[in-house]
Amino acid sequence: MEQDQRIIVGVYHLSKSFGKHFGLHDVNLQVANGEFVFLVGPSGAGKSTLLRMIYMDDFPDSGQVVVGPYVSTRMKSSTIAELRRKTGIVFQDFRLLGDKTVFENVALALKAAGAGLGEIKKQVTEILMRVGLYHKRYDFPHELSGGEQQRVAIARAIANRPAVLLADEPTGNLDAVVTRSILELLFKINAGGTAVLMATHDLELVKSFGQRIIYLEGGRVVKDSEMIYVGDLRRKIDGSPVGRRAERLEGRDIRGEGEGR
Amino acid sequence: MNAAQFGYVFDEAATMLRRHKAANAVSIVIMGLSLLILVVFLLVTINVQAVIDRAGDEMRVYVYLADGAGEAAARDIQMRLLGLPGVEEVVFVPRDEALLSFRETLGKNSDMLDALEGNPLPDAFRVKVKPEYIRSERLEEMARNVEGWSGVEEARYGERWLERGEKLVKGFYFADLFVGLIILLSVVFVIANTVRLTVISRQRSIEVARLVGATNAYVRIPFLVEGAVQGAVAAGLAVALSAIVHAVARRHLPGLLFLGGDAIAAFVFFCTILGAIVSLGAMRRLLRF
Ligand SMILES: Nc1ncnc2c1ncn2[C@@H]1O[C@H](COP(=O)(O)OP(=O)(O)O)[C@@H](O)[C@H]1O
Ligand SMILES: [Mg+2]
């Protein structure tokens, strides 16, 4: 299915069941290019499951997920790999390789994408400076604090300049001060044009930022603080215009090579 | 896959081998010893074959002429013998000469020949046959054919001996096949198992590689290399150990043959490919994608 080019992540009538009790039910949501969205819901609501469908580690029973040019019903292993190179993913538990240095951990994403050594060196240096960890490039993950480890994970996630960054409870293991700094980093990345979809169970933490919030409960979207009308208009639920973020609708997209429309 | 990725993949394989030195060393030693058994069986086989071949070189077909066959008939038979496929040399052995050498063989018992009147032995041709024709069925066919010629009384060769030798070699080949099969299975099992352990211990790094968009080949090639290296090193070890066994055995059995360079290369190559294939198979069952 084709979707509006300004939409980077689209979920359409997605349903998935696990046994009798849990599942996602007719989930619909769209994230525009350059947008920042919090996906909020209690533990067990299905946030992680939904994100997994978006980076296509799992697939819906019915409905579709569309990420840029990638459509969940038409994926094969090579296009999944392609999608992952154009999507940044961050987790609560960082998922760094303990036997590799900070530099090597970030370089991994570029190597997988086939970058040459020179480019890797330049790119990793630049990104580590951006996340403020260049001085720790030769350290191993266990020598870093939790917040620093998450910064490395974020650096790895944005190494290939993805159009969208998915974050699953990225601050779940971090204290309040560090949580704040990680959120600031995510906002900074978003300000650079990357769409961010961050899942969290902590409504209190995120409600003050004025970003769009999608509420998920029992596998259903129960509320969306902003609605996107695919077309020209995009408004908050209360009817006021979205403001400057709407300008980013024209921003980057992640069309696959050779698939330009 | 471009050059940079290729380089990376081999780095990864090297890291993997380094990290799992102990596990790899253990499986390589187990495989090396299993393969050693196979190599020793092969060595025994080629040596038995060599002994039989050498004996075969000495082997001659004797074509005895009928009593009173004339000189013309003899010459005709000689020509026809020379025309047969596989015949290298035809030597006429006059009956007197045959008797003489018989006497020599008998030594001081040769007196008993004096009791005979005249020479009971016939004239004969001693036929030398090319090595590749020293096979029961070929010699048998030649003998039957020649015995049908007029002027020929009988054609003989060491038929009993030859048949027995051939059976022996065939037995060894079957044993090799049987042992080879069992050892192959054990090698497949050992490689599959080590690769499986490596995959499990590398679960996290495989997961992360996939997360950042590594392709199938990218994830799998390091394991493929691991399997191939295991196969190659185990084969090399087996060859080295069998060389020691050979050197020791040769003190008692001089002239004992060893595998040729071609055979060693083929053996190592085969084990390398086997390692890669087994590793691929082990991964297919373990890695979803
Ligand atoms: N692969 C699966 N098989 C069975 N149940 C699953 C699976 N994935 C998720 N679940 C169920 O989904 C529920 C929570 O989903 P999850 O997406 O982890 O929620 P959240 O991230 O919002 O806490 C759990 O109760 C779990 O039992
Ligand atoms: Mg979760």
Report the major sheet of chain A: 6 strands, mixed
Oligomer: heterodimer
The SSE string of chain B, one letter per element, is: HHEHEHHEHEHHHH
**Straight-line N-to-C gap of chain B:** 18 Å
Based on CA atoms alone, the radius of gyration of chain B comes out at 31 Å
> What's the pLDDT, averaged over the residues of chain A?
86
E-strand count of chain B: 4
Shape estimate of chain B: elongated
What is the straight-line distance between the termini of chain A? 13 Å
Adjacency order of strands in the biggest sheet of chain B? 2-3-1-4
Largest interface: A-B, 29 and 21 residues
Number of helices of chain A: 7
Structural class of chain B: alpha+beta
Give the domain tally of chain B: 2
Number of helical regions of chain B:
10
Q: Give the overall shape of chain A.
A: globular
Structural overview:
The complex is a heterodimer of chains A (261) and B (289). With 261 residues, chain A is α/β, with parallel strands linked by helices. Chain A has seven helices and twelve strands. In chain A, the strands form three sheets. A six-stranded mixed beta sheet of chain A has the order 6-7-8-3-9-10, sandwiched between helices. In chain A, a hairpin with a 5-residue loop joins β11 (226-228) and β12. In chain A, α5 (146-158) runs parallel beside α6 (176-191). Chain A is globular and about 45 Å long. The two termini of chain A are 13 Å apart. Mean pLDDT of chain A is 86; it is low at 228-261. Chain B is an alpha+beta fold and 289 residues long. Helices cover 73% and strands 8% of the residues of chain B. Chain B has two domains: 3-54 and 166-283, no CATH class; 60-156, Alpha-Beta Plaits, CATH 3.30.70.3040. A four-stranded antiparallel beta sheet of chain B has the order 2-3-1-4. Chain B is built from ten helices and four strands; from the N terminus they run ααβαβααβαβαααα. In chain B, α1 (3-19) packs across α9. Chain B has helices at 3-19, 21-58, 71-83, 95-106, 111-114, 136-147, 159-201, 203-211, 216-252, 261-286, and strands spanning 60-65, 87-93, 124-129, 152-156. The chains are: A alpha/beta (261), B alpha+beta (289). The interface between A and B is medium-sized, with 29 and 21 residues. Magnesium ion is lined by residues 47-48, 168-169 of chain A.
